[in-house]
Amino acid sequence: MLWVQALVFCGGLIYAAVDDLKTRTVCDIVCIIIAAAGLITISPASFLGALLAMAPFYLCAGLGLMGGGDWRLAAAVGFVLGFDRVITGLCLMAAALLFASFAMRVIPALRKSASAKQPLVPYFAVAFIPAYFL
């Protein structure tokens, strides 16, 4: 059953990343499907992971710095990963965001996109898919 969870988790994140790049929205159905995949290996760590992953994005959404779909997706991802792997995923996501920001500032062809708002879900996929397998 773990391979089903891996397929749903990875497929859902990849779909959400592509959809976020196209529409700049996060589909609620994808969040529900990813959270449902977490029911396969549910534990108390699942709830702590959801809370830990959701908290910073919820605060940023409350301050108007990002949309509301990001924190819902973070909660679903955290529910699947649990507490320990969420910490790993958040560190990987921070590294990916820093690397992309640096590249957008240094590479002249990317400078125009550095000032525009960037979709966040592709960074979720880049960070939390490897964290799932660690």
TrEMBL record:
Keywords: Membrane, Transmembrane, Transmembrane helix. The chain crosses the membrane at residues 26-42, 86-107. The keyword Membrane applies. InterPro entries: Prepilin_IV_endopep_pep. GO terms for molecular function: aspartic-type endopeptidase activity. Gene3D superfamilies: 1.20.120.1220. Residues 7-102 form the Prepilin type IV endopeptidase peptidase domain. It comes from the Bacteria. It holds the Pfam family Peptidase_A24. GO terms for cellular component: membrane. This is Prepilin peptidase. It comes from Lawsonibacter hominis.
